[in-house]
């Protein structure tokens, strides 16, 4: 039995103090996070919030501060403009317009909110029911909402008014019910697309109930849409309410309403035109405020289009580009790389812009490599080593909030790292193209393959319709599609993954690029299709003379297709050189370990009895040590590895290696151990123990 020890008073005090400190720091973090919320960073939304809040407060406290009651009449100042006594003038009965506007505000806003609550709640619940239930329930609900949408809303509202009188809350609630049909359709579309996400399938496999899935996985994804719909309905509700009051179906007289006041003003448009201004302006400002808030809330950065940078990100990138351009060395090194189709990356660094360009966490540091025309360079390493960031920086497509913080990307002598977004548009597609891991993402599900190819060819090569159609067919044939004519007419979802990757390659070739950046183009494909795509890329390089930067974590792919390889670890190149040299004679322990862990990488060597593993994982950028970044996982690390390590000649051709022990390891001919469990256990003769270890590793 484990003995229990009663906590002492000192322990308890310490824990209470720690808990209070945690709560304080969590509170501060929450306040800091909220202050960065898009609602508070959009000037329009902030103005809208201030206006609505002021209106509500002023309206609710109106009896305390307004100089006149709503029904007070001043016959000495009928239809007057602004005066010291009546700041916004008076109406035809000498009633103070300012007092009436504020007295009517709370009612107008409150009943519009009622429309929002009823409409959005009903629309959302119906949409969630439809999305989660079977086809029959969805069919029944959808038919019901279609009927609602086909009914003449105005007539129904007038009929309701005929039945219950001008009871504005009831009328606005009915309006909410009528509007819920439209909201249902918008939300259902999005809910169904969320239902088809992989994480929803995973939740189903985990045994979550349909209700649990809807609430936990689907509803949060709908938040943006719901908020935008709510703001829209709020604004529409206010306008409809004003419209009803305008035609005489507002709150009973003498209760003021904005619509009623506008109607009164419309009768004096010639003799007292000012009368229309205050109420009209307040109504317009309130509607605009609701829309501005909805806009800001709905504009979740990266939510709908993570690849499109926000305005702030664009400004940030422009600043980073300017900084890089001013820090770039003279054009002399650029001139040396002017040959057509030559890429030369020099000391490239990429980082997060959290504290301004160049001041955030670095993600890639000091990366250099060259790619000659007609050759393939492999960027290889585990997940999180910075391969994708390096590759995307070549196209100026780094995600929002990440930018190049130093170094040069020399393409035909031009430094792309210091090029504006606008200039990059002329390079992307035409000179450098991209194919990605998921071909389906490159293809728009809404359009046929033919349409997408034609549109790209017309845009990039300025072709006419007929010429583009012919070229699209040629391109598909070039990437090995035999029935090109049929594929041109199909939609992306009608073709297989391998076929989609061929189409994506054809799209990438549309602009006749000289460099293709291929970000793990075969990872999502099965092995036979992988081989086909690799041999297609090889053939394209040979036929067209274009070069390829191939991002991969698979040394087998490197062995198959790459002329040069740059092994990346924790944001750095740790070894580079000619592929066969590196595969036959790796100098960095990380390369050694990757090779020992990959049975297909080196065809020359016999399949080992057991595969190696690399203990631990790639450190997060914020945890990179100042010395060798691989030291913590390295079987050969020693005290010399705590100092920063430069890239040094590896002694194999023109290769470079970032390891202080590279020469010693080469001389001693050391191998990466097959496992990180002590060698005595791995090689242990005792059959029982060996079986257990074998099982564990499996
Ligand atoms: N948008 C981002 N903002 C901040 N950090 C990021 C962003 N995207 C990636 N990172 C970080 O940058 C580092 C490098 O990521 P990168 O995607 O380049 O790695 P990778 O080697 O290509 O991995 P994978 O093979 O999984 O794509 C990782 O630590 C990752 O967490």
Automatic annotation (TrEMBL):
Pfam families on file: ABC_tran, BPD_transp_1, oligo_HPY
Record-annotated ABC transmembrane type-1 domain positions = 105-294
TM helices/strands, residue ranges: 45-66, 101-126, 147-164, 170-188, 226-249
Question: Has the keyword Cell inner membrane been applied to this entry?
Answer: yes
Question: Where does it localize?
Answer: Cell membrane; Membrane
Q: Where is the ABC transporter domain?
A: 345-595
Q: Which family does it belong to?
A: Belongs to the ABC transporter superfamily.
Name of protein: Dipeptide/oligopeptide/nickel ABC transporter ATP-binding protein
Q: What is the lineage of its organism?
A: Bacteria, Bacillati, Actinomycetota, Actinomycetes, Micrococcales
């Amino acid at each position: 039995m484990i003995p229990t020890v009663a906590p002492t008073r000192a322990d308890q005090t310490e824990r209470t103090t720690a808990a209070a400190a945690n709560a304080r720091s969590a509170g501060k973090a929450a306040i800091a996070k909220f202050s960065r919320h898009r609602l508070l960073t959009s000037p329009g939304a902030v103005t809208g919030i201030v206006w609505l809040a002021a209106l509500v407060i002023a309206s609710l406290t109106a009896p305390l501060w307004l100089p006149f009651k709503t029904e007070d009449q001043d016959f000495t100042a009928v239809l007057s403009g602004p005066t010291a006594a009546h700041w916004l003038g008076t109406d035809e009965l000498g009633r103070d317009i300012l007092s009436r506007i504020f007295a009517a505000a709370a009612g107008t806003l409150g009943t519009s909110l009622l429309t929002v609550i009823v409409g959005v709640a009903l629309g959302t619940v119906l949409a969630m029911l439809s999305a989660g239930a079977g086809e029959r329930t969805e069919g029944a609900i959808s038919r019901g909402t279609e009927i609602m949408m086909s009914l003449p809303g105005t007539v129904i509202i007038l009929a309701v008014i005929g039945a219950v009188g001008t009871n504005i809350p009831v009328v606005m609630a009915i309006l909410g019910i009528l509007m819920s049909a439209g909201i249902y359709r918008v939300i259902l579309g999005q809910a169904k697309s969320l239902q088809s996400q992989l994480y929803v399938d995973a939740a189903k496999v985990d045994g979550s109930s349909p209700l649990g899935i809807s609430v936990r996985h689907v509803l949060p994804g709908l938040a943006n849409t719901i908020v935008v719909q709510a703001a829209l309905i709020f604004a529409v509700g206010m306008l409809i309410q004003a419209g009803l009051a305008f035609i005489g179906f507002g709150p009973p007289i003498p209760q003021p309403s904005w619509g009623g006041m506008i109607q009164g003003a419309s009768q004096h448009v010639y003799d007292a035109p000012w009368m229309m201004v205050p109420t009209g302006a307040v109504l317009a400002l309130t509607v605009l405020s609701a829309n501005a808030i909805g806009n800001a809330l709905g504009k979740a950065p990266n939510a709908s289009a993570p690849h499109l940078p926000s305005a702030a990100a664009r400004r940030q990138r422009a600043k980073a580009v300017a900084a890089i351009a001013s820090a770039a060395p003279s054009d002399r090194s650029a001139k040396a790389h002017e040959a057509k189709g030559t890429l030369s990356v020099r000391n490239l660094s990429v980082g997060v812009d959290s504290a301004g360009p160049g001041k955030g966490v670095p993600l890639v540091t000091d990366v250099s490599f060259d790619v000659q025309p007609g050759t393939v360079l492999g960027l290889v390493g585990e997940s999180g080593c910075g391969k994708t960031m390096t590759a995307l920086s070549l196209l100026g497509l780094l995600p929002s909030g990440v930018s190049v913080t130093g170094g040069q990307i020399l393409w035909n002598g031009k430094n792309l790292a210091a090029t504006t977004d606008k200039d990059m548009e002329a390079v992307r597609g035409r000179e450098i193209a991209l194919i990605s891991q998921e071909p389906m993402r490159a293809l728009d599900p809404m359009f046929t393959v033919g349409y997408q190819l034609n549109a790209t060819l017309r845009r990039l090569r300025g072709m006419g319709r007929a010429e583009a159609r012919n070229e699209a067919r040629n391109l598909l044939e070039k990437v090995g599609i035999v029935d090109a004519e049929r594929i041109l007419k199909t939609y992306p979802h009608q073709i297989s993954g391998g076929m989609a990757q061929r189409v994506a390659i054809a799209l990438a070739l549309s602009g006749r690029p000289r460099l293709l950046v291929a970000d793990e183009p075969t990872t999502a494909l099965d092995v036979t299709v992988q081989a086909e795509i690799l041999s297609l890329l090889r053939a394209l390089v040979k036929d067209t003379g274009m070069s390829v930067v191939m991002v991969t974590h698979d040394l087998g792919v490197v062995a198959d297709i790459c002329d040069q390889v740059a092994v990346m670890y924790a944001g750095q190149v740790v070894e580079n050189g000619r592929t066969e040299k590196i595969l036959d004679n790796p100098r960095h322990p990380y390369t050694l370990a990757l090779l020992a862990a990959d049975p297909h990488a080196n065809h020359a060597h016999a399949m080992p009895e057991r595969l190696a593993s690399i203990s631990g994982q790639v450190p997060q950028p914020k945890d990179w040590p100042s010395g060798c970044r691989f030291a913590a996982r390295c079987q050969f690390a020693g005290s010399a590895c705590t100092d920063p390590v430069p890239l040094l000649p590896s002694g194999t051709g023109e290769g470079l290696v970032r390891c202080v022990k590279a020469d010693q390891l080469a001389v001693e001919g050391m191998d990466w151990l097959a496992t990180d469990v002590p060698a005595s256990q791995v090689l242990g003769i005792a059959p029982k123990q060996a079986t257990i270890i074998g099982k564990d590793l499996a």
